[in-house]
Backbone:
């Protein structure tokens, strides 16, 4: 062995270029590298539940769980624990909660240099306050999921789980200054019950102590936390489609995308955060009761919106729809909006006339338009004339037809020749040419795909009623759409 390898700095430099898979063979090959290679092994390789159980079995006495171990018996385990940077544990067993009790150590933390901790905690399992020993000040990423066990949890177990969550979050918010960690990522997901007000308050208090968050994933984000989150830079927030959930992405300190999904339990008519606005939003997704979506739209007023998706979860009200669009409309958004989508998953309504959507034609530079109410939209040939005249840059359009026979005809599709960049058409139409329809001379239309969102039954009806003149229809489509590659009746 070369004498230069006895220099610690040289060995450390060499190990910096060695991947995790080569560290164990290196540790077994040369005594000079053993300690450093093992250290690197546990720094670079996450410890999962199986590896942790193996580690406990190989470094602690067999009767370890039945007594408090003296320091000399704990040292083999602690030597590895000090080098561990990542720990993943699904459904922690008794060893997880017993370890802090049986291990004699100088530090209050089992893994004093841990940087990432991910735990799946079953509702039935006790895990607090034992988890405190796994949260050193070095922690940068914390992920916790409260998951149901194999059977149905009893009311007492659910109540115990809720109490553990409250105590845990409260302890995080009240940590001594010497034990506070600064997270770059926090994941806290719950699948047991709705978040109580007290638990929500503790969660918000803890997150307010975190000023370097880059990723936040929660199934519930308290409303009063918004001002703190908006002030963070480089933050990506993920929410779920539950009451009060929210998703915000910030880029260089400016909110560029805003997603708000309000469930049936939403009770705040003032909007998400009174007094907080997002002037730089470019992409907006809002879902919930129509009257509340209108107030949310005010928060992005004046921004240069490029994409807007609106999902309405209650009955249609034309005046509220117009209010919503007026709140979205600004000098900037009229020129910048490129895509607008409407979705209404409610059934039992009559088809909506296209007049209900006339306000969308104010955004004259749109290239994509989707209207997808479950009840369908009644389009007539004259409506396509208005759409193509108002939106000359349109490249794709998708409008759900009503369940009954549509009014629009194939002849009406000829209006799309006014949109020089149109490529995809998804509508419901009758495969007929109104009497007097002239087959135009060949156009330069770029349309490649046409989907009839009606049904084959409509095609059969047209055939039975002698409304479909195949030769004329084909000649018309070939003339209007010379680049047409796909025509499907769905």
Residues:
């Amino acid at each position: 062995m070369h004498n230069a390898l006895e220099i610690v700095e040289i060995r450390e430099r060499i190990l910096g270029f060695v991947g995790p898979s080569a560290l164990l063979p290196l540790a077994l090959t040369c005594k000079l590298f053993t300690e450093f290679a093992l250290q690197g092994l546990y720094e670079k390789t996450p410890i999962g539940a199986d590896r942790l159980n193996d580690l406990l079995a190989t470094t602690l006495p067999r009767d370890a769980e039945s007594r408090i171990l003296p320091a000399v018996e704990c040292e083999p385990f602690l030597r590895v624990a000090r080098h561990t940077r990542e720990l993943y544990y699904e459904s922690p067993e008794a060893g997880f909660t017993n370890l802090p009790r049986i291990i004699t150590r100088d530090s209050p933390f089992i893994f004093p240099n841990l940087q990432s901790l991910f735990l799946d905690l079953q509702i039935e399992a006790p895990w607090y306050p034992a988890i405190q020993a796994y949260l050193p000040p070095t922690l940068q990423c914390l992920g916790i999921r409260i998951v149901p066990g194999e059977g149905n949890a009893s009311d007492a177990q659910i109540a115990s789980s809720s109490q553990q969550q409250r105590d845990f979050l409260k302890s995080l918010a009240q940590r001594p200054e010497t034990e506070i960690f600064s997270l770059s990522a926090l994941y806290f997901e719950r699948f047991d019950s709705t978040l109580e007000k007290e638990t929500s308050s503790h969660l918000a208090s803890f997150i307010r102590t975190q000023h370097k968050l880059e990723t936040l994933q929660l199934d519930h984000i308290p409303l009063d936390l918004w001002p703190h989150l908006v002030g963070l830079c480089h933050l990506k927030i993920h929410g779920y489609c539950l009451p009060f959930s929210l998703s915000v992405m910030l880029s260089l300190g400016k909110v560029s995308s805003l997603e708000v999904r309000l469930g049936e339990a939403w009770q705040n008519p003032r909007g998400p955060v009174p007094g907080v606005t997002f002037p730089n939003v470019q992409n907006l997704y809002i879902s919930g009761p129509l009257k509340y979506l209108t107030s949310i739209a005010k928060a992005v007023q004046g921004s240069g919106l490029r994409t807007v998706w609106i999902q309405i979860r209650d009955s249609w009200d034309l005046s509220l729809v117009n209010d919503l669009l007026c709140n979205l409309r600004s000098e900037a958004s009229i020129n910048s909006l490129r895509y607008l989508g409407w979705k209404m998953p409610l059934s039992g309504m009559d088809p909506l006339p296209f007049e209900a959507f006339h306000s969308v034609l104010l955004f004259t530079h749109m290239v994509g338009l989707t209207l997808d109410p479950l009840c369908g939209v009644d389009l007539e040939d004259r409506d396509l004339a208005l759409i193509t005249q108002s939106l000359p840059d349109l490249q794709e359009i998708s409008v759900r037809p009503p369940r009954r026979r549509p009014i629009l005809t194939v002849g009406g599709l000829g209006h799309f020749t006014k949109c020089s960049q149109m490529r995809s058409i998804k509508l419901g139409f009758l495969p007929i040419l109104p009497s007097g329809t002239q087959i135009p001379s060949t156009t330069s239309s770029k349309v490649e795909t046409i989907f009839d969102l009606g049904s084959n039954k409509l095609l059969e009806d047209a055939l039975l009623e002698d409304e479909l003149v195949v030769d004329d229809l084909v000649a018309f489509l070939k003339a209007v759409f010379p680049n047409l590659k796909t025509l499907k009746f769905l």
